[in-house]
Amino acid sequence: MILLKNLEVKQVMERKVSEIMTSNVITTTPDVDVVNAFEKLMECKISSLPVVVDEELLGIITATDVGHNLILDKYELGTNVEEIMIKDVVTVSPEDTVYILGDLCMNGDEKEWNRIYKNLNGYKNVIYGNHDTIQKLSKYVNDYGMHLLDYGDMYQYSKKKKFYLSHYPTLVGNHEEKKFLYNLSGHTHSTDIFQYGWGNVYNVSMDAHNCTPVSIEQIIKDIENY
């Protein structure tokens, strides 16, 4: 998942996060027991809980992470939110655009997908994955602010940097020869940021970024440091 911070995106409808965002946000505090926090997630039918003290965002927990670890019995009795929350939180402002590179319908059922789609923030540009179909996704376009981009899209960041966005990793040329053209992709669910050792094929899947969106600034920084 890619987060474009305050950038003009070509081929995207003019719609802002402020038009579709949730303003009355349900939160938790660091001292809450993990089990109680998970019960709150399920009761409110939301996918994540910001961890807040005195209106300051300290971290976030997600239903996917907490639920998975509770099933595997990874938490000791009395574990609180502060011990397991994600502290390096990537936030979405009212001017941001998000690209989701496929597999929104990989697991779960329609009820689960509705819960996830409803709680995804930002103006969402979706590229189909191998687990997605137009029948599965098209019904959510109007309800949840999605814009479907078929199986690939080109994004021009600057004169010196251009990105081909796709679900499948795509070799777009030799890294040394094509330093202006990069592929951003997912599919493999690998924890490696650069796919197959190719310096111009960047993995944006949640598996590689601690279940958070990765900003375009971070992508460029990683590429320049490769």
Describe the structure.
This protein has 226 residues and is of the alpha/beta class. It has two domains: 2-17 and 92-224, Purple Acid Phosphatase, chain A, domain 2; 34-84, CBS-domain, CATH 3.10.580. The protein contains eight helices and eleven strands. It has helices at residues 17-20, 34-44, 63-71, 81-84, 110-118, 134-137, 141-144, 216-224; strands at residues 2-4, 48-53, 56-62, 97-100, 123-126, 146-148, 152-158, 161-166, 181-185, 201-203, 214-215. The strands form three sheets. The protein has a five-stranded mixed β-sheet. Helix 5 links the parallel strand 4 and strand 5. Helix 2 (34-44) crosses helix 3. The longest helix has 11 residues, at 34-44. Mean pLDDT is 78; it is low at 6-13.
